[in-house]
Amino acid sequence: MTPVATTFFFYLLSGAALLGGVLVITRRNPVHSALSLIMTLLSIAGLYLMLYAPFVAGVQIILYVGGIMVLFLFVIMLINIEQASREERFSKQWPVGILAAAALGVLFVSVFFKGRSVLPTQLLVLPEEHNTQQIAVLLYSDYMLAFEIASLLLLVAMIGAVVMAKKRTTTP
Amino acid sequence: MTPITTLHYLVLAAALFVLGVIGVLTRRNVIIILMSIELILNAVNLNLVAFSRLYGLQGQVFSIFVIADAAAEAAVAFGILIAFFRNKETVNVDEIDLLKW
């Protein structure tokens, strides 16, 4: 199925994503930041659908919004946000930080516009109905080793998180 | 109106990346810094998926690996954060200045 009104939806979704991003880095309350980040993540999932990547869009919603963001909200509620919401939001080096980030952005955009002739103009035909199947075939053939390493990484991260967050019974 | 090309997605991803960098460099709250890192990872994912429209499905496979890495990173970071908060009662990065207690 070809997408309809691509231009309108692209600008709508990218506007929502950018607005959410700005709210993430400016809100005082971490819960509001987390909710704005959820808005950004959902807009990016919509953009994945427009790029013929329905499986990545589904993973984004289930894993990012349903998993990682819930973890964020849990941790925000475990620590004391009352005190954090009264303190200064930005660190002392914020002008330098914004300047460095703006320089990085100018560099990115100038590289994109200088090198855009390198990009192929012909778009590939990616059939959506086989998307999940094709990704699975790639994961279990060409990227088998990377897939196994990713599972090992998740195991190590799980053990690491439990060891870190465990209460110490004996103080050294 | 001009049709949406890959360049549009690249510029949007660059803007999200810059927002994430600003968040990492200027905020004091560790949780917001972690959220900014998620923003950066999402910008990279958007780039990968946009390029997979031009060069094949490998970009989408890599974006799945990036999402798995983001989950692992968030889990370990929150483990460290909770261990730290239990000892020092603060989440501000400029007050986190010790390796051992």
Architecture blueprint of SSEs:
The complex is a heterodimer of chains A (172) and B (101).
Chain A: H1 6-26, H2 30-50, H3 54-78, H4 81-84, H5 94-114, H6 131-140, H7 144-165
Helix pairs in contact in A: 1-2, 2-3
Chain B: H1 6-26, H2 30-55, H3 58-88
Helix pairs in contact in B: 1-2, 2-3
Structure report:
The complex is a heterodimer of chains A (172) and B (101). By secondary structure, chain A is mostly helical. Helix content of chain A is 72%, strand content 0%. With 101 residues, chain B is an all-alpha fold. Helix content of chain B is 77%, strand content 0%. Chain B has three helices and no strands. Chain B starts with 5 loop residues before the first helix and ends in a 13-residue tail after the last helix. At the A-B interface, α1, α2, α3, α5 and α6 of A face α1, α2 and α3 of B.
Question: How is this structure best summarized?
Answer:
Chain A is an all-alpha fold. Chain A is built from seven helices and no strands. In chain B, 54% of the residues are buried.
Structural class of chain A: mainly alpha
Helical element count of chain B?
3
- Terminal Cα separation of chain A, in Å? 63 Å
Structural class of chain B: mainly alpha
What does the oligomeric state look like here?
Answer: heterodimer
Low-confidence stretches of chain A: none
Tally of separate helices of chain A: 7
Order of helices and strands of chain B: HHH
| Residue share in helix of chain B | over 70%
Detail the poorly predicted runs of chain B: none
How many E-type strands of chain B?
0
Question: Could you give the count of β-strands of chain A?
Answer: 0
